[in-house]
Amino acid sequence: MNIIRECKDGILTWTYRFATMGMAALFCAAHAQAAQSVTLAWNPNSASGIAGYRVHYGTSSGNYTQTSDVGNATTATVANLTSGKTYFFAVTDYNGGGIESSPSNEVTFTASASTPVSLFSASAVPAIVTVSDPNSVELGCKFQASATGKITGVRFYKGPQNVGTHVANVWSSTGTLLTSATFSSESASGWQQVNLANPVSVTSGTTYIVSYHTAGYYSADANYFNTSRTNGYLTAPASAASGGNCVYAYGTSSTFPSSTYNANNYWVDVVFAPGT
Questions:
Q1: What is d(CA 216, CA 56) in angstroms, rounded to the nearest whole number?
Q2: How many angstroms separate the CA atoms of 135 and 173, rounded?
Q3: CA 143 to CA 265: how far, in whole Å?
Q4: DSSP class of residue 233?
Q5: Residue 150 Cα distances to 83, 113, 120, 135, 195, angstroms
Q6: Domains in the chain and their CATH numbers?
Q7: What pLDDT is stored for residue 46 in this prediction?
Q8: Which residues contact 251 (CB under 8 A, 6 or more apart)?
Q9: How far apart are CA 222 and CA 155, in angstroms?
Q10: What is the CA radius of gyration of the chain?
Q11: Mean pLDDT of 61-80
């Protein structure tokens, strides 16, 4: 007997035809939790002697490279899915002797492309838009992410006197240059962004520095990093806990910034795509 069951969660709607076959569980993808997670639900097998269920999945139809034993549960959340990839799921049940059924019908789920995030909103404005410092300097700020992903861009706030060519850099906490890019098509003032031709892979909990080089007259807030700042996946640690959050290095060309002063914020920001 075939049964039509429709699953709706306000985000995704699937209609599947279920076939009752032996010990196989009736299976339904019920709720997409987040960009890299999906919650699955199925009808329990009413036959006696069922000891548990297993969720099988992979990135090609019928080829399940991952298996999760969920015991007697009839729902399961599968996390750490790669953004943009389509996954195929099926469920089996098994008895106390370890005999496993054939797979249920197969359902698919495509993990949504992740939305890039930054520490500061587009409406954030420095307290001091133009610092009266005419010297060339590299200005950077530290951040950590609570998820793996990639640095896809660098932002900085520009005052009207902060003119000339600006070069963005991404560094490890120990001074290894990971990538660079030059800003183009800048506005006269406000937030500027450059997208990286070579995005940098980020390890969760690791400190990175995003910086830019300017001819002077940058923006700043004193004592801004007396406390840590968090937005979503991103945290900029407090200066006292990080050896100074925002850092600088004077020079006519880019160099690793390591000096710090007064828990300043130099308004340099990251564009981070989680889970990519």
A1: 57
A2: 24
A3: 12
A4: T
A5: 12, 13, 17, 32, 12
A6: 2-110 (2.60.40.10), 137-274 (2.60.120.820)
A7: 85
A8: 136, 137, 138
A9: 19
A10: 25
A11: 93
CA 136 – CA 56 distance, rounded (Å): 57
For residue 276, what pLDDT is reported? 67
pTM, 2 dp: 0.66
202-233 per-position pLDDT tens digit = 999 999 999 999 999 999 999 999 999 999 99
Cα angle, residue 55 at apex, residues 150 and 274 outer, rounded to 5°: 10
Q: Angle at CA 99, nearest 5°, toward 43 and 2?
A: 35
> Does residue 24 surpass a pLDDT of 70?
no
Percent of the chain with pLDDT over 90: 75
What are the residue ranges of helices labelled H in the chain?
239-242
Structure tokens at 92: 């089996």
User: Contact 154/143 with Cβ under 8 angstroms?
Assistant: no
Cα 210 from Cα 178, distance rounded (Å): 10
Q: Which amino acid is at 60?
A: S
3, pLDDT greater than 50: no
- What distance in Å separates the CA atoms of residue 249 and residue 139, rounded to the nearest whole number? 7
The token duo for 254 is 């880019």
- Our measurement of the distance from residue 91's CA atom to the centroid of its chain's CA atoms, rounded to an integer in Å, reads 29
Tell me which residue has tokens 């896809």.
Answer: 152
